Amino acid sequence: MKRIAKISLSLMLAALMVVIAACGGKAGNGSNAEPSAAPSQEAGAAATAGSDLESLKGKKIALVMQFNTGTFSAQYVEGVKEQVEKFGGTVKVFASDNDLVKMASNLDAAINQGFDGILLDHGQASALEAGAKKAVEKGIQVVSFDSDLNVDGVPLLQQDDQKMAELTLQQLAKDAGGKGNIVKVWVAGFAPMERRQIAYKAFQEQNPDMKEIAAFGNASNPQVDTQAQMKAILTKYPNKGDITAVWAAWDEFAKGAARAIQEAGRTEIKVYGIDMSDEDLQMIQDPNSPWIASAATDPKDIGRVQVRTLYKLFKGEEVDKVTTLESVYVSRDQLPTDKKINTTELSEYVEGWGSSQQNYEDWMKELEGSN
Question: Do domains 57-158+299-327+354-369 and 161-296 have the same CATH topology?
């Protein structure tokens, strides 16, 4: 019996040693242990990043616009749609026909229809603040462009309006030799216009011999209205030299003024504008047009940067409260004379135009590539 007991004890000890060795090998505690089959930190991070990007696909975006007049707005919308589609999302445009009450109603509709994100184009805080706060409270991300909105959690994009005004006004004064009579086409009540007016007032103080002889502007049907009012001013000042130049604070104003001047055969009067579209560029290239220069940001880039800012919010990244978009000065003498170009080709002739990389992150390129 003792012999059998000793043999049984020996067998039990041997079996126990095998179990311990096997467990140690699986835990990787031995010096010759095989590598663990668990995923590496790098692989885990990659899987998490991939999951984050997947969650960004299929987003529904509302674009709520105060107005969608003219080719500049049309190209801005193109930029928004292009970038959202590259990210795998969809866009619905709510146009408000320059009616702030309607714009506030459209913002409420976008909130109630369950969009993931809302882009605001222009508008005023008085009409948009309540809706923007409501959207934020509901967890809807909001990004505004060219408004005076000041709501926590809602970043703003704006053009460098004062710089654009300064660029055109400085060149106007230089071309006129610092002396002459000018017509201003401008309208109050819009954040970008108010910023441009700051530069205009400084220009007046710095150039006392540049006299403003007329000022007007209407945001409703702006091109046609400007053309009619400019025609009346030309009748009031019929002689060559009565008017030196027109400063137009919006490309829709510049188009209307330029057409009235050209029709009247008064092309000694030069037009300096702000903003740029394909249609604008064709007019500036026309040697018979009085519109000779404009300062602008690529409207498609504006749309793209606004969308990128929204997607940074979707991903939980920090975003600047205000993003100021880069702008350039475009004049006729920079452009080719042997062919017509569009804004897509403008970067070949004007340094700094188009292809903005603002708020464009590396992961966005990966998101675009996966769609």
Answer: yes
